[in-house]
Amino acid sequence: MNATQEQSPLPEEEEINLLELLQVVARRKSVIIKICTAAVIIAVCYSLTLKNIYSASAKILPPQKESGGGLSALLSQAGGLASLAGGMGGLGGSTDLYLGILKSRSVADSVIKRLSLQKEFEAKSIDETRKKLEGAVKFKAGKDGIISIDAESRDPQKAAQLANTFVAELGRRSVELNLSKAGAERVFLEKRLEVVKQDLRNAENDMKAFQEKYKTFKVDSQATVAIEGIARLKAEIITKEGQLATLRNSMTDESSEVKALQAGIARLKGQLGSMSGSGGNDVIPAVGNIPGLGVEYVRKMRELKTQEAIFEQLTKQYEVAKISEAKDSSSVQVLDEAVAPLKKSKPRRSMIVILAAVTAFFASIFLVFIQEYLSKLSPEDAVIIRDIKNSLRFRPHDR
């Protein structure tokens, strides 16, 4: 190659002319029309083979927590430990909780069994049936807390039945969970009450034996106030220790609520120590300030009053647990039952045809531009293209 050829400038890039592009489209319009027509015909035939799908929707409102009256009033009278039990009892009004129950395997299996869905879905296993059921039913919660259950089926009656069955299973399952929790609390309190009753009986017998032995001994009014105050403090400490044990099941010792309860318990124990010790400047006289038989009497009276206070707290809590067990407080409220729809929800056949036509149009435009480019190849480029085609062909001797 000589210097003149090396220094010759490269040809300038040709600008894209829109009129030339339109000319290509117009010249090859028959190809575009044929491709679009074929795509539309295929899309129409395909959409007609699809079976109609119907959607039914049910709306439910999860149970809300009681804000006052009835059980809440009794809880407020029952004291701290009973109030805590009332707050923990029942499933509450959490929308996310009920969505979790709806999506649980146990609820899905109950619906599959009730409606014989494995046979209807023609599934080989229960796992396959669950997957198909998951695709047929959707759950969603609105900002207002209302849960929607949307079910799809080829049969409008089946779609409504499927949604309503999920509603029924949710109500049944939530009641079972609530009653199971309330029943466990009641059984625990029954056992605890038996122990407290025996402790109270022992304290009463000790007091009776002491009074019979020393012929009705009685201390002054200040000591009586001290005894009652100590009993109340012990009952309150037991209450807060129960709350602390409950919180530790779901929180760490670093949480603010646990720390606040620990500080409260420490403060109460400090007060109890000052009342039960031998201080000399207390407004209420300490036990150590009462001489002779009065000390023994105060100790026995204090134990009796303490057991009475604990028994009273547990009795109130036990009554609350029985009410919670008997009350169906977790039944969901059905706002709208699912009804058989009159119109299909899908397939949207017109949309399928439109999308197929638009896609075919752009694909055909791309194709005619490629055809136009290939028709204007130089002989050298045509040889290269032919060589590429030959290289890509599969030959038996290439094995």
From TrEMBL:
InterPro entries: Bact_polysacc_biosynth/exp (IPR050445), GNVR (IPR032807), LPS_length_determ_N (IPR003856)
Keywords: Cell membrane, Coiled coil, Membrane, Transmembrane, Transmembrane helix
Pfam families: GNVR (PF13807), Wzz (PF02706)
Gene3D superfamilies tied to this protein: FepE-like
KW Coiled coil (keyword) present: yes
Lineage: Bacteria, Pseudomonadati, Thermodesulfobacteriota, Desulfuromonadia, Geobacterales
Protein name: Lipopolysaccharide biosynthesis protein
Membrane topology field: Multi-pass membrane protein
Stretches of the chain forming a coiled coil according to its record: 186-250
Domain named Tyrosine-protein kinase G-rich: residues: 296-372
GO-annotated cellular components: plasma membrane
Residue ranges of the TM segments: 31-50, 351-370
Organism listed in the record: Oryzomonas rubra
Keyword Transmembrane: yes
GO molecular function term, any single one: protein tyrosine kinase activity
Residue ranges constituting the Polysaccharide chain length determinant N-terminal domain according to the UniProt record: 14-114
Location within or outside the cell: Cell membrane
